[in-house]
Design brief:
This protein is α/β, with parallel strands linked by helices. The chain is built from 13 helices and 12 strands. It has an 8-stranded parallel beta barrel, surrounded by 7 helices. Strands 1-12 form a two-stranded antiparallel ribbon. It has a two-stranded antiparallel ribbon with strand order 2-3. Helix 2 (about 75-80) links the parallel strand 5 and strand 6. The longest helix has 22 residues, at about 280-300. Bound molecules: flavin mononucleotide. Flavin mononucleotide binds near residues 197 and 267.
Length: about 325
């Protein structure tokens, strides 16, 4: 399964009538300024190794003015010894930080008080709940009771003082589900569609799950491609804040996501290797994506993100 962006191409503008040096990729998300419309998507926390990875990501995101999402904070309350891997404010004092928790945890002992504690410990500006039913079902003792979650999400949105977002983890959110979430008070959705990291594949290679390997194989191409999710969510929710992630590899993929209707683009796995190395390596990866986005904008003659979002130059390639 692919991210779906390969089905689109920009029609080149030979006379862009803009100065490359003046192209602006600044934006804001829910009132928070960003120097680039990019997000480090939720990945890790709760282990010793995660301290290093997250500090590299946080320091680089601060320098580039990206938004930063921390990995699932479940471990933060369960094993306080690794709290430091989630406490990134000292390394990223000004950028928006999002805390993250599996929505299903609302059915397994996490309530408003726990979420408030997570916000306090992380200094987060946003609280993201992830929907990962197809990951849990492949875990040996996964949390698979997803009943009644929408009501609980609605209650949480009403009781937390910061905006709540909902994301998938690589299988995608469609327009109807997004509408139900926005109607419940969710401030933003991140489609986290198919085409990138697949946790069914991840679970397949975890030793504890050898017995599920053939089953995981059957579902290896499950999920809605990210490009399709963006179109579907946007068509039913024209004005709602929307993040695109899931298999984005570069700034050109991100540009297509914006032209299809996303406001911010998120990267996870493609930043991970650099994050294990150094802050400088993460910065290189970030600057590369920003440059690719600007080159795309130059190529179609869009001087800012509004111009890119409104471009008529994104075309679906004819079917072979
Ligand atoms: C190593 C790794 C760990 C992840 N952990 C989380 C997590 O804790 N919470 C979450 O919401 N998503 C998690 N994700 C999913 C990502 O945030 C993202 O939605 C998904 O991987 C799609 O992006 P990608 O294709 O750029 O990796 C993780 C992804 C990776 C690669």
């Amino acid at each position: 399964v692919t991210n779906g962006f390969e089905q689109y191409r920009f029609i080149h503008n030979a006379l862009p009538e803009i100065n490359f040096e003046e192209i602006s990729i600044r934006t804001e998300f829910l009132g928070k300024p960003l120097s680039a419309p990019f997000l480090v998507s939720s990945m890790t926390g709760g282990t010793e190794w995660a301290v290093t990875i997250n500090r590299h990501l946080a320091a680089a995101a601060e320098k580039r003015g990206w938004m930063l999402a921390i990995g699932s904070t479940r471990a933060l309350l369960e094993s306080p010894e690794y709290a430091s891997s989630f406490q990134l404010r000292p390394f990223a004092p000004t950028i928006p930080i999002a805390a993250n928790l599996g929505a299903v945890q609302l059915n397994y002992g996490f309530g408003v008080e726990e979420c408030k504690k997570i916000i306090e410990l992380t200094g987060a500006d946003f609280f993201i709940l992830h929907l990962n039913s197809m990951q849990e079902v492949f875990q040996k003792e996964g949390n698979t009771n997803f009943k009644g979650l929408l009501k609980k999400i609605e209650r949480l949105c009403g009781q937390l003082e910061i905006p709540v977002g909902v994301k998938e983890v690589g299988w995608g959110i469609d327009g109807g589900i997004a509408k139900a979430l926005y109607d419940a008070g969710v401030s933003f959705v991140d489609v986290a569609g198919a085409g990138g990291t697949s946790f069914i594949q991840v679970e397949k290679y975890r030793e504890q799950n050898q017995w599920m390997r053939p089953v995981a194989e059957v579902f290896s191409s499950w999920g809605t491609p990210t490009a399709e999710c963006i179109l579907s969510v946007r068509s039913q929710n024209p004005d709602k804040p929307l993040i695109a992630s899931g298999g984005l590899r570069n700034g050109l993929d991100a540009a297509k996501a914006f032209a299809l209707g996303a406001d911010v683009a998120g990267f996870a796995r493609t930043l991970l290797k650099a994050a294990t190395e150094s802050e400088e390596r993460v910065l290189e990866e970030m600057e590369r994506r920003e440059m690719e986005l600007k080159i795309t904008m130059f190529g179609i003659g869009a001087g800012d993100l509004e111009g890119l979002k409104k471009t008529g130059r994104l075309q679906k390639k004819p079917a072979d």
